[in-house]
Specification:
six-stranded mixed sheet
């Protein structure tokens, strides 16, 4: 029998037959086993569950492989489907600036409004459930801003600025408003207090942990007024209070700056004014709206840029520049399922507005196109997504709303009724109804503008205005399109009428070839139309022609398919 040789063990010396060596080897072996047990326990520890929050139709959601950002500028709900830790920013509505007052040719300038309160939590624990979010409005001129609430927290509105000549005082809020200036030293003679700035309300700062600061009093100089306090600092005699800077969205943004008063001109601070979250209103102007922003990280276990296991809609394939894609077209409501995280290209189109009804000599106007959203790249987490397709509007009715992946494409506005109802606004406006040249005073001869709430965030629809009825007999206006507004009528040599040009469609090649979507509906001139590609009931999102229905909405999703490597085997 062969002898067994000594086999060295990592961390141990070769065991020999003396007591000291044996004891030392035992100590080393015990330490090695203990380290192994600790490593095994660490490896077996469960991974922390990823948090997930879902916004409603009023939320603007941006998803990337590393995190998700939900931005709410309108009241709604946030649903926590997986509890955990988030970063959250609440901003109250900015206080309105104080009104100017003009008397006997003298201008008494109002003070700037105070900024809305700010609450910023970098590590906030949320529990599962549906949470109401109320967004505070910016204060009207001479009014405090509204409060913003979410997850049991309250960001209060900013205080108003004082009215010129002290006709009302500045008020406290999350930040205080600025004092008004009397013309020269009138306040000393009249004994009024309106030139003084207001402090931040202590209970908002202490009990609710709002960031906020005091407004400034009017400087002892002619024609100057005080400024509003900001979330980042108090106002000075010559500058509004500083804003609070935060990069929760991934970019450094100034929130809740103080509103500007007057110092030979209107002073607007960074993050102040009506166009900033929580910005205090400049003198004689409204405050900025409040808002809520949530950011959280999700564990991304697997992300695919090319895949073939997604389902939903009518599935086709196309090849572009040698790359093969799968296309999912939803002409009807349904569900899109993706079993893993992935990158997709998406087109979302609302239903086109119906054309207006009418008859000779007052024809109805063309309908406005449905709203359109196109994303060349959208990151989706694994799961099932509901797709809701908006119907085309009936004659004289707006188109339906299409929703998908947290986005909303609104329906187009209907065309005006000849001699009746006006054209309606929508994602694109409807066209004006026809008129007789000797009766020019009809309101329904005017086309409708696009609804700005649909084209701005959080919806960001592509849409444009409809056209007025041409100044000619028996002609009607056309609907706006996703690619451009409707044009004015031009003479038609064949019959002497003026035909309006529908708004241009949006051309997209998501299906593999160029297709026109969401074009404006045609008006009517005598018995002729001026139809364009992408308009009418036969096109996705097309505005309805005069006297016709609008086209239905659609959702199209495209993703890259995996490459397949072919192996050639030759038998000889």
């Amino acid at each position: 029998m062969k002898p067994v040789r000594n086999v060295p063990v990592i961390g141990l010396r070769t065991v020999r037959s003396n007591a000291a060596s044996v004891a030392d080897g035992r100590r080393r072996l015990s330490a090695l086993f203990a380290a192994g047990a600790a490593f095994a326990a660490l490896s077996a520890a469960p991974t922390a569950k990823a948090v997930n929050v879902v916004g409603d139709a009023n939320a603007e959601t941006t998803i990337s492989p590393s995190n998700t950002v939900i931005r709410m500028t309108r009241s709604g709900t946030l649903t926590v489907t997986e509890p955990g830790e988030i970063e959250i920013l609440l901003v109250g509505g900015g206080g309105g600036g104080g009104a100017n007052w003009i008397n006997s040719g003298k201008t008494y300038y109002g003070g700037g409004g105070g900024a809305g309160g700010v609450i910023h939590k970098t590590a906030f624990q949320v529990t599962a459930g549906e949470w109401e979010v109320a967004i505070g409005a910016g204060g009207a001129i001479g009014a405090n801003g509204g409060k913003t609430t979410a997850f049991g927290m309250t960001a209060w509105g900013g205080g108003r600025g004082a009215k010129g000549a002290g006709l009302y005082d500045a008020l406290s809020g999350a930040s205080g408003g600025g004092g008004a200036r009397y013309y020269f030293n009138d306040y000393e003679q009249e004994g009024r207090t309106g030139y003084k700035g207001a402090p931040a309300k202590s209970e908002y700062v202490n009990d609710y942990f709002n960031l906020g600061n005091a407004g400034s009093s009017a400087a002892n100089e002619a024609c100057m007024s005080g400024h509003g306090g900001g979330a980042g600092g108090a106002a000075a005699w010559n500058a509004p209070g500083a804003a609070y800077r935060c990069s929760i969205t991934g970019a450094d943004v100034a929130y809740a700056g103080g509103g500007g008063g007057y110092a030979w001109n209107v002073i607007t601070g960074v993050g102040g004014g009506k166009n900033s979250f929580g910005g205090g209103g400049n003198m004689n102007d409204v405050g900025g709206p409040g808002g809520v922003i949530v950011r959280f990280n999700r564990t991304v276990s697997k992300t695919e840029t090319a895949f073939d296991d997604a389902t939903g809609g009518t599935v086709t394939t196309c090849r572009v520049d040698g790359v093969k894609y799968q296309v999912h077209t939803f002409a009807q409501s349904g569900q899109f399922y993706i079993p893993h995280h992935g990158h997709v290209e998406v087109l979302v189109v609302g239903g086109g507005g119906g054309g207006g009804s009418g008859s000779w000599p007052r024809y109805g106007g063309g309908g406005g196109a449905g709203g359109l959203i196109y994303k060349s790249e959208l990151f989706l987490t694994n799961g099932v997504y509901d797709i809701v397709i908006g119907a085309g509007g009936a004659i004289g009715a707006n188109g339906g709303t299409t929703t998908a992946f947290g986005m909303t494409a609104w329906g187009g506005g209907h065309g005006a009724t000849g001699g009746g109802a006006n054209a309606a606004s929508g994602a694109s406006g409807g066209g004006g109804a026809g008129r007789q040249w000797w009766n020019d005073g009809l309101a329904n001869s005017k086309g409708a503008d696009v609804e700005s709430a649909y084209t701005n965030a959080p919806y960001s629809n592509l849409g444009n205005a409809g056209s007025d009825a041409p100044y000619a007999t028996e002609c009607s206006g056309a609907g706006g399109g996703a690619g451009g507004p409707a044009g004015a009528g031009t003479p038609d040599a064949s019959n002497g009428t003026h035909r309006s040009h529908p708004g241009a469609a949006y051309v997209c090649s998501i299906t593999g070839s160029d297709v026109a979507y969401a074009g404006g509906g045609s008006g009517r001139a005598w018995n002729t139309f001026y139809r364009i590609a992408g308009g009418g009931s036969g096109s996705y999102g097309g505005g309805g022609d005069s006297g016709g229905a609008g086209g239905p909405g659609v959702v199209i999703v495209r993703h890259q398919l995996p490459k397949t490597d072919a192996t050639i085997i030759t038998f000889r």
